[in-house]
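Whether sequence alone determines local backbone shape is best considered at the level of individual chains. In the encoding step, the backbone of a single protein was reduced to a row of integers, each denoting a local shape. For completeness, the protein is quoted in full, as a sequence line and a line of structure tokens.
***
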Amino acid sequence: MDEFKKVIEQLISVFSQLTKIEQVKLDAAAGNHVGTVEDCVTQQQALLLKLRGLEQSRERAQKKAGYEGMQFRQILEKAPDNEREKLFGLFDSLSREIQMFQEVNDGANEIIRTNLHVIDKALRTKTGKTYNGEGKSESNVRHMTSRRV
């Protein structure tokens, strides 16, 4: 059970780090600091690899503790009384960290989508090209030529 709790604590730490990086990315995207956004994405990719490894460790530790395939709520129901309070605190902290990450992530993604739309609009205005529903380039510029010579 101690191994399982340690993995949950590590998951909490990784989501806390992801949230901090995501907040930096949100601020950078709002300020149009592309280099900082790229740095944040690189840092997040490394943490996501760590998160995948921790998820596998959690599954192994959960199985070893006798809670294979159970959701946290189910684990709390089955856990001994002396473990239940500690597990509840860990699960609650993990849930809050995940929720905070998702909220900041949603904000950052919205700003990035808006920035991409602004860039796309500026490019269309400058080049005179738009794209139709099939992704084919169309031009707003019409050429007036006569075939009579």
